[in-house]
Amino acid sequence: MQLTIERSALLKALGHVQSVVERRNTIPILSNVLLSAGRDRLAFAATDLDMEMVDEAEAQVQVEGQITAPAHTLYEIVRKLPEGAEVSLLYSGDDPRLVVSAGRSRFNLPVLPAGDFPVMSTDSAGASYVMPKEDLARLIDKTRFAVSTEETRYYLNGLYLHTVSEAGVPLLRAVATDGHRLALAETPAPEGAAGGPGVIVPRKTIDQVRRLLDDAGGPVEVTVSAQKIRFSMGEASLTSKVIDGAFPDYLRVIPKGNDKQADIDNALFAKAVDRVATISAEKSRSVKLAFDNDRVKLTVRNMEAGQAEEEVEIGYSDEPFEIGFNARYLLDVAGQITGENAAFRFADPASPTLVLDPADPGVQYVLMPLRV
């Protein structure tokens, strides 16, 4: 294999695929990136056996061929080369190393046979649709903060992506929950999405897709089956296994009859929560909210650090009411509100609270209260 490639093209493609590779691997080949040169293109592939990222870039190929090389090492080398450099990659059977050279720099990297590299199979059955990258980015951004990080309930370690029909209108919906809070975002379903299987997309996959969306120039093609999901944008595509499990019936958690309503300036409220939470206990981070006649009083008591109080003017005309929340969860939701105000809907101090964004009716947030 012998080729020359421009540094920026090599860096971009390598940046995409090497992020899939785990830093520590018991299987050596999984630390490597598969390089395939042919027809004036250099293709890249990396995998952790649950997910596979592929990309490609233009190159001047003198000799076609395939080899695998250490992904992170190769990426760091290319990253530190000067901008505009022409990078030469050379591998011949005579020398069991990949020679990377640019200008006066020359590196020899260990290789492993391309034939040992695991390739993820694709599923033909399922649904395929194309959607604007902005719509997919919104679904991810509005919900992924609520994905569980506890491995015990593995079926909550991802984003539940599925289609629903509301008043005859098909919607593509993303839901995440960790048992303490829930985030839901939806958008009109793209053509071809309705009827596809609902899948739980792993947290790591969601993070990788979100990174790809920042570099994507156009729409995203999504192909989903009961076992796998693939996101394709431009030259890059990511194929991932989905979590094998049943996502809980989240509709039962979303409250319908919460009759107490508070309309709150989101930025003012978030800053007040952040200030009083400074002295909260790290474990619970609980803050008490006391609603009364167009104001809310925030209180935090910590046996060791003291007490904090602050009042914020709001729109509230129902009976006086107290409820407690995890301050971190309040701030996470506040960070997703796009408009000036957030609409809180309460039932009682022990029941889930619904938070809505008047500027974006396609999102809903549910917070479980704390005892304070």
Task: Describe the 3D structure.
This protein is an alpha+beta fold and 372 residues long. It folds into three domains: 115 residues, DNA Polymerase III, subunit A, domain 2 (DNA Polymerase III, Chain A, domain 2, Roll); 126 residues, DNA Polymerase III, Chain A, domain 2 (Roll), CATH 3.10.150.10; 108 residues, DNA Polymerase III, Chain A, domain 2 (Roll). It is built from six helices and 25 strands. The strands form four sheets. It has an eight-stranded antiparallel beta sheet. β23 and β24 form a beta hairpin. α1 runs antiparallel to α2 and α5 packs antiparallel against α6. 36% of the residues are buried. Belongs to the beta sliding clamp family.
Write the layout of secondary structure elements.
Blueprint lengths: L1 E5 H12 L13 E7 L2 E7 L3 E8 L1 E4 L1 E6 H10 L5 E7 L2 E8 L2 E6 L16 E5 L1 H9 L16 E9 L2 E9 L3 E8 L10 E4 H13 L4 E5 L3 E6 L2 E6 L18 E6 H11 L9 E6 L3 E8 L3 E8 L7 E6 H8 L6 E6 L6 E4 L6 E5 L5
Antiparallel strand pairs: 1-5, 1-7, 2-3, 2-6, 3-4, 4-17, 7-8, 8-9, 10-15, 11-12, 11-14, 12-13, 13-25, 15-16, 16-17, 18-23, 19-20, 19-22, 20-21, 23-24, 24-25
Helix pairs in contact: 1-2, 5-6
